[in-house]
Design a protein that fits this description.
The chain is α/β, with parallel strands linked by helices. Helices cover 34% and strands 21% of the residues. It is built from 6 helices and 7 strands; from the N terminus they run E-H-E-E-E-H-E-E-H-E-H-H-H. It has a 7-stranded mixed β-sheet with strand order 2-3-4-1-5-7-6, with helices on both faces. Helix 1 packs across helix 5, helix 2 packs parallel to helix 3 and helix 5 packs antiparallel against helix 6. The chain is globular.
Length: 197
């Protein structure tokens, strides 16, 4: 059962629309879905939304540390509410997946993602769930832009409809995952098949 959802991003208006903040975007949408509001929690180094579901208490967290210190916030919430690492779902941008695609997995490496790296270090385990939201890689797009610069810029105009659709599917998938239906969650993330006309 998922009890803590963590959206990764950087605080501040200058980062709001950047690729690196898609985890924040989805966290905001999920909080809206469950009619929960974020409040600033200095003791948790972030903004936290709380709600009750049929399955139990659910917390949605947006760390206010910068990306590379995200684990500090995650650990504070997990320790206070006694949430084991395998009941945590992290929402984050993924360079190795094209825009419009989303993948769900539990455990694994951090693939150079500083937010995941710090969460693994602070929690002492990689065994949390990850919802990997594709933002594409600058090399795959034929861009010479450095990766750090790429993720700290907004998506291209042509990528936004793909990202919006991916976030829509993600909301359905997370709802299924919260009910314990991993198969439905995975099916929800599959890209819609094109039909012949």
């Amino acid at each position: 059962m998922i009890r803590l959802i963590v959206g990764l991003g950087n605080p501040g208006p200058q980062y709001e629309a950047t690729r690196h903040n898609v985890g924040f975007w989805l966290a905001d949408q999920l909080a809206e879905d469950v009619k929960a509001s974020f409040t600033v929690e200095s003791g948790f180094f972030g903004q936290l939304a709380r709600t009750k579901t049929i399955e139990g208490n659910l917390y949605i967290l947006k760390p206010s540390t910068y990306m590379n210190r995200s684990g500090q916030s995650v650990r504070a919430v997990a320790q206070f509410y006694k949430i084991p690492v395998e009941e945590i779902l992290v929402l984050h941008d993924e360079l190795d997946i094209p825009s419009g695609q989303v993948k769900l997995k539990r455990g694994g490496g951090h693939a150079g993602h500083n937010g995941l790296r710090d969460i693994q270090a602070q929690m002492g385990s990689p065994d949390f769930w990850r919802l990997r939201i594709g933002v594409g890689h600058p090399r795959a797009l034929g861009l010479s832009q450095q990766v750090a610069d790429y993720v700290l810029h907004p998506p291209r105009k042509e990528d936004m409809p793909l990202l919006e659709e991916a976030l829509r599917r993600s909301r359905v998938a997370v709802s299924a995952l919260l009910k314990g239906d991993k198969n439905l969650a995975s099916r929800s993330l599959a890209e819609p098949k094109e039909t012949a006309t």
